UniProtKB/TrEMBL annotation:
The keyword Cell membrane applies. InterPro entries: ABC3_permease_C, MacB_PCD, Macrolide_Exporter_MacB. GO terms for cellular component: plasma membrane. It comes from Sandaracinomonas limnophila. It comes from the Bacteria. It is found in: Cell membrane. Keywords: Cell membrane, Membrane, Transmembrane, Transmembrane helix. This is ABC transporter permease. Belongs to the ABC-4 integral membrane protein family. The lineage of its organism: Bacteria, Pseudomonadati, Bacteroidota, Cytophagia, Cytophagales.
């Protein structure tokens, strides 16, 4: 028997034991679905994060009192410095006004309740005070109405921009524009609608009410607020030098002692994306281990089924050997049968895994993740299926090839 005949014989055997084959292939499919599905979801999330940070531009950086992303290890405390207050933020912005665009943002509260007539949002709405460059530097788009104007900032007008999640909770069929809502007991006029941004990096970018910076300070009721600063350089060929200049100004503003560490964090937008790369790398390893364990269990089940198949076909093996089939041909026959079952199961698992993985990515990213066809993981999945088939089928195939033809013919 040549290779083609072995494959055809394997398919005939599979057809003859269809139910057992389907159950075996289903086990393999579940393992491949777990492996490829998890890795597809991670790739989808990664592409969404990359797109989000690419839109911010490679020439911008953040100044905060804590890291935007920090992987905490056992025994380590989260690094957090004293708040960047309004005076410090304004002084920094004034210094860099002629060198680039600087925007300030303060989180007045992360658990605000917005009300309109008898409806209200969940107590997890974000209330942000922002200045004139915030939407531009943070890649927010106006989906309807207008942006804040100069008079809104200078007069601390009670106006606001709403994210789509807030609109969905307060306004079902009517436009929110020019309507008055109440947030934390203060009435605000809706002048603009924010286009959907998605919920990456912790979520909540669409669950937001934005007000002019001075309005946010007024709504804080005298509480000390913390400010985040984003700087975008203009025509800077060496961003690292520009960042060092910004670091020096901020140290002076914060009155950091000579030789002491910075009392703030300064991070490039693209470096934040690289930090996320390391996290997704760890997730990929974890996903691969989970999928591998599932496939290991499937391979053991397949080996058991192949052992049963060898026992059931003892007389068939004896007949084949009496007609001149060599032990190598018998070995290849059972080995190819195991591989064919694994490949069929693997193909089914891949077809299931791609939509599942993309749905997971869409759910986590708030519907902004790109649709991913993971060619690398698909090819890897098929290769793994072949290896599983080899692992599962080698022992039963060897056992079959070593059977004595006379004893096999006597088997009942």
């Amino acid at each position: 028997m040549n290779l083609k005949e072995n494959i055809l014989e394997g398919l005939r055997s599979i057809k003859g034991n269809l139910l057992r084959t389907v159950l075996t292939a289903l086990i393999i499919s579940l393992g491949i679905t777990a492996l490829v599905g998890i890795l597809t979801a991670i790739d989808g999330i990664q592409s969404s994060v990359d797109n989000s940070f690419a839109s911010l531009g490679a020439n911008s950086f953040e100044i905060r009192n804590r890291p935007l992303m920090q992987i905490r290890r056992e025994g380590q405390r989260e690094k957090r410095y004293k708040n960047i207050d309004f005076r410090q933020a304004i002084r920094y912005k004034a210094t860099f006004a002629d060198k680039g665009k600087v925007t300030l943002k303060t989180s007045v509260t992360g658990n605000a309740i917005a009300k309109y007539e008898s409806k209200k949002t969940n107590p997890n709405t974000r209330l942000w005070g922002v200045d004139n460059y915030f939407l531009e530097l943070k890649d927010y788009k106006i989906g309807g109405g207008r942006n804040f104007i100069k008079n809104d900032f200078e007069k601390a007008q009670n106006v606001c921009l709403l994210g789509v999640d807030v609109i969905d909770q307060l306004f079902e069929k009517e436009s929110p524009l020019d309507k008055n809502i109440t947030v934390n007991g203060i009435q605000l006029k809706v002048v603009g609608i924010l286009a959907k941004k998605g919920n990456m990096m912790g979520g909540g970018d669409d669950r937001v009410v934005m007000v002019p910076l001075e309005t946010g300070r007024k709504m804080a009721g005298g509480r000390s607020l913390n400010y985040d600063i984003t700087t975008s350089a203009k025509n800077i060929y060496n961003l690292d030098d520009f960042m060092e200049e910004a670091r020096g100004v901020m140290r002076k503003v914060r009155m950091d002692a000579i030789g002491a560490e910075d009392s703030f964090t300064l991070e490039r937008s693209d470096s934040i994306a690289k930090s996320f790369d390391s996290i997704t790398g760890s997730l990929r390893i974890g996903g691969f281990i989970i999928g591998f364990i599932t496939l290991l269990g499937a391979s053991i089940a397949l080996m058991n089924i192949m052992m049963v198949s060898v026992t059931e076909r003892t007389r068939e093996i004896g007949i084949r050997k009496s007609l001149g089939a060599t032990p190598t041909k018998i070995l290849l026959q059972f080995l190819i049968e195991a591989i064919v079952i694994c490949i069929l199961g693997g193909l089914g698992g891949i077809l299931i895994a791609i939509p599942i993985g993309n749905l997971i990515a869409q759910g986590i990213s708030g519907g902004v993740a790109s649709f991913i066809i993971p060619w690398l993981w698909m090819i890897s999945g098929i290769i793994i299926c072949i290896l599983v088939g080899l692992f599962s089928g080698i022992y039963p195939a060897i056992k079959a090839s070593k059977m004595d033809p006379i004893e096999s013919l006597r088997y009942e």
